[in-house]
Write a structure and sequence with these properties.
The chain is of the alpha/beta class. The chain contains six helices and five strands, in the order βαβαβαβαβαα. Helix 4 links the parallel strand 4 and strand 5. Helix 1 packs across helix 5. The longest helix is centred in the first third of the chain and has 13 residues. The protein is globular.
Length: 146
Amino acid sequence: MLYIASDYAGYTVKERIKKILEKSSVNFVDVGCTSALKKNDFTDYIKSVVQPVQLSNKNFGILVCGTGQGMTIGANRFKKIRATLVYTPRQARFARTHDNSNVLVVAAWEVRSSQLYPLISAWLKTPFQPLARRVRRLKKIDTWPQ
């Protein structure tokens, strides 16, 4: 299952991403926020996405905020989360093939509407390529203290 959330600054982009997911027949759960008009903190929505991702390697997440930086920093504080902020489909593919990204972060103020489909599609369709060196690197990161 895919979990998606945004703060107020990312709300409009989150709604566009949801349309992309619906057209692509991707099952998802929207865990907030519900309006671009009501100010909130990006930190209010991270947990709702990352906790289900922590529970199963079949779950993934998408987080959206203005710069993408806050969501990325916050999400990566959680064990088993590999949140990646990407701006291009190429970065999205590498985030999956090389780093086994399980949470995609989108910068609402930086990514144009026309860039969303290629970006989301690349991240969703690209599998992790578990070469020995990549697995070794991820295992090292997993041993770091939280």
